[in-house]
Amino acid sequence: MDLKKAGLFAILIMALEGCIQTGYEDVSKNPIIRYVADNNGDTAIATIEMLSPATFKGVLEIRYRGAYKDSGDIRGVVRGDTMIGDYNFQHYGLPKWNRNPLALLKRGDRLIMGEGMVMYTVGIPHYNPNTPIDYDESKRFVFFKDTISAK
Fold first, then answer.
1. pTM
2. Beta-bridge partner residues of 37
3. At the top level of its lineage, which domain of life is listed (predicted)?
4. pLDDT tens digits, 96-109
5. Tens digits of residue pLDDT in 66-91
6. Pick from 87, 31, 82: which is nearest to 59 by CA?
7. CA distances for 113 relative to 22, 29, 104, angstroms
């Protein structure tokens, strides 16, 4: 009886290990880049991982003049020089989660956060495709690669 239990346990462990391993990619293939930005006393830190040439995910934290912060996950797709996605975050660290659309325009080594007209479809916010997204650098965060932390 003990031999049957040991064999069953071994098969169960191998099956679970196989299921777990198929869900993960080799992380070393996906570079993770950290960006920092400042805009009129507000600061932002974005850590972005390119999952493929067409998709990304990461973490974004925005600190408002040191008084409070928004922090959460970002994910989306890459279309040419633009990264479009969602920012799921907690405001002030409260338990309620919020969701905003996110647009980042790549110019050289910089990422410029865009601002646009937000629409809701089935309760999900996204930018209105009929209205251009504004990437005015004087009004928005401009992210630079964080070369200090990377070393």
1. 0.76
2. 44
3. Bacteria
4. 999 999 999 999 99
5. 788 999 999 999 999 999 999 999 98
6. 87
7. 35, 26, 5
